[in-house]
DNA sequence: GAGTGGTCTAGACCACACG
DNA sequence: GTGTGGTCTAGACCACTCT
């Protein structure tokens, strides 16, 4: 069979954005092509994908490569997989790129909104115990702490408090105060963001939050705490973002084969 | 080399809990052994793992199998990976099993808490547009809707509203009202939970929430909406859980290679 | 029984990090 | 340059689903 298929391996020489180690890998091209076909609806809403062998033949690659491509789609929640039957289309892609998740600026632009922000303060001081623990610092080490108000097309939506270890902090401190995206600038200076752990819960606005966001003190805020590390495992930031309710939500896909999400009792201290 | 290594392939013939298609796969045994070694601290906090080839030799498997095992640990956020250097230990495992995430009962027990609950209501009625959309039902189809109050060692922590499609609902309706875990019973009846999409945000308590949870009306609640599907892609539940603040938090690990987390603007309707 | 995905192997080449 | 992980291949066998 071969003829009714709408998509083919249109040579995607390079996709922009955050491209991992090898952005031009064969299996990524296959994955991109299949993703395109799926979201276009070429296989229907709950339709079945062709067999791995058929895909391998169509794309002119080995079955192993096809499986690698399908693993990507599997992790993104696009398709299921079960021994004995064809893969089934689950839904449309909604997973964002990693950088889009870490960078408020990048994210806002992808939405078509105008990202804005104001650096409220930047201080350098000795790290407290919790910060040393999170950033894996020696006793006596110093940290750089920033407080920023983030806006989406003019409206305040989030307060961001970030703690940087010294080797990142010195770079942040040098940046002009009007720089929109710290993340992008840091990447240009060789600071890589590759892994992040997020914790999401609800917290009451303190006086500072209330003033900046224009809400009552004690009003509920959606809090996302995030610790990001570079490929060597060294922490590069520890951030705490507080969003006004109704402005954002977080989504996760998981399955028996890919978990990465967990639920915890009791919010740990502040 | 072989002698100073503390861990070995202690034959784990079978691990309990939710075991996927092939729970006794070689790479899973290797993954389990490495996970054990890592969390025990055999490689140090930010230590380096042996090379893939060395691991392959130690376990007597091919490099491909080792890589499969390492991919599991990678997705769980236990280790990093970068071309050119050894893998680095990131942190300790905190990811829960899939069933622990879906089943309140299972989760509570794993915490050492006593799960409790009360079925407030169970009704059968025609699905509205949103429900048909979520559960992929035909116009005119009926759904089963449950309202449950969940307790942890006696204290109310969460209100759960679940909508079941007909083929699952009939089973739920037959269950005795004092059954603690619906999830476990459904699995015994052949209803499989394999994939879930979660959305997390903040919502104000309505009159019903307030009465059940004992909070003020309008008080903030942490909301988790979840749509679960079986391996054929058919939705099996659509649930909306509302937690009292301070009782739970959600954690996600993600990286450049494994995303599955996303942030969205504006909370979609109710 | 035929078809399909899950697992495993053995080997190859490449891109990158680091000394 | 050497070692490492990233990618790719070709083939094999098994477990499972479905008809």
Keywords:
homodimer, alpha+beta, 270 residues, disordered N terminus, Arc Repressor Mutant, subunit A, DNA-binding, 8 strands, Chorismate lyase, six-stranded antiparallel beta sheet, 2 domains
Give a description of the structure.
Two copies of one chain form a homodimer. By secondary structure, chain A is an alpha+beta fold. Chain A folds into two domains: 74 residues, Winged helix-like DNA-binding domain superfamily/Winged helix DNA-binding domain (Arc Repressor Mutant, subunit A, Orthogonal Bundle), CATH 1.10.10; 168 residues, Chorismate lyase-like (Chorismate lyase, 3-Layer(aba) Sandwich). Chain A is built from nine helices and eight strands. The longest helix of chain A has 15 residues. Chain A is elongated and about 60 Å long. The N terminus of chain A is likely disordered. The structure holds a DNA duplex (19 and 19 nucleotides).
Summarize this entry quickly:
Chain A is α+β, with helices and mostly antiparallel strands and 270 residues long. Chain A has nine helices and eight strands.
């Amino acid at each position: 069979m071969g003829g009714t298929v709408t998509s083919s391996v249109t040579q995607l020489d390079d996709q922009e954005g955050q491209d991992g180690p090898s952005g031009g890998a064969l299996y990524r091209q296959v994955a991109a092509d299949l993703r395109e076909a799926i979201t276009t609806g070429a296989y229907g809403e709950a339709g079945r994908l062709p067999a791995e062998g058929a895909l391998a033949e169509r794309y002119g690659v080995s079955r192993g490569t096809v499986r690698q491509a399908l693993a990507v789609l599997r992790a993104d929640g696009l398709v299921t997989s079960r021994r004995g039957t064809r893969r089934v289309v689950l839904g449309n892609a909604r997973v964002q790129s990693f950088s889009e998740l870490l960078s408020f600026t990048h994210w806002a632009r992808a939405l078509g909104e105008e990202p804005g922000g104001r650096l409220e303060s930047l201080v350098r001081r000795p790290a407290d115990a919790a910060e040393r623990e999170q950033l894996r610092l020696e006793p006596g080490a110093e940290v750089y702490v920033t407080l920023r108000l983030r806006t989406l097309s003019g409206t305040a939506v989030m307060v961001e408090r970030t703690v940087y270890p010294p080797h990142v902090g010195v770079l942040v401190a040098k940046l002009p105060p009007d720089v929109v995206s710290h993340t992008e600038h840091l990447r240009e200076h060789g600071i890589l963001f590759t892994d992040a752990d997020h914790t999401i819960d609800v917290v009451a606005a303190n006086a500072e939050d209330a003033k900046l966001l224009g809400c009552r003190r004690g009003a509920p805020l959606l809090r996302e705490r995030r610790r990001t590390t570079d490929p060597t495992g060294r922490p590069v930031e520890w951030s705490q973002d507080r969003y006004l309710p109704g402005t954002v939500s977080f989504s996760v896909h998981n399955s028996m084969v890919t978990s990465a999400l967990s639920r915890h009792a009791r919010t740990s201290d502040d």
